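subagent[fold] <- orchestrator: predict structure for attached chain, return C-alpha cells only, no commentary.
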Amino acid sequence: MKFIAHHAGEDFPVEVERHASGYRVRLGDRWLVADIVNAGPYLRSFRLEDGTQLSLTHDREGTTHKISLGDSTIQVEITDPLSLRRKGREDELGAGGVVKALMPGRIVRVMVNKGDNVRKGAALVVLEAMKMQNEIQAPADGIVDGVFVETGQTVESGADLVHITPLER
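subagent[fold] -> orchestrator:
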C-alpha cells in the first residue's frame, strides 16, 4: 500500500507491504523490515531486521499521526494518494454524481443498494487492484440512486460504480 507522509513542510513516499509475520516499509529510498506488536491502545513494540527492539506510542486523529519514541515526538500527516485523486473528482462532481473507478480492478464487495442514504466517507464498494483492496467512499451525504456493478465484476479505470444524488443543504 502506498502513502504520502507530510512532515516539516516536506512530502515523503511511504510504501507498506506484508512480509512474513511483519511488514516491509519503504521510507523514501530506504527499506526496513519490522515485526510490530500492539502492546496497548497506543503502545507499539517492534523489532527491526537487525534485532533492535523499540517501543513507541502512536495516536491517530484523522490523517494526523502523533508518534513518540523515547524523548522525541513527531506529527506526521499520512495521505492515501487515491484519496487525493478522489478529492479532485469530488470537486468536479460538486460532491455528488457518478462515483467512478480510479483504476482497473475487480469488485470484491458492494456495500450499498439503490435507495440507501449514505454519509460522506461511507463505504460504497471495495475494489481490488494490484492485490490491494481499496474502499471507495461516498464523496458527499446523499441517496444512492444507481449501483452499476456487482461483486466479482471486473472494471476498467473510469468505470461508473455508483450514482449518488446529494442531499439538499
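orchestrator: received. Logging for downstream: The domain at 81-166 is CATH 2.40.50.100 (OB fold (Dihydrolipoamide Acetyltransferase, E2P)). The CA atoms of residues 123 and 137 lie 5 Å apart.
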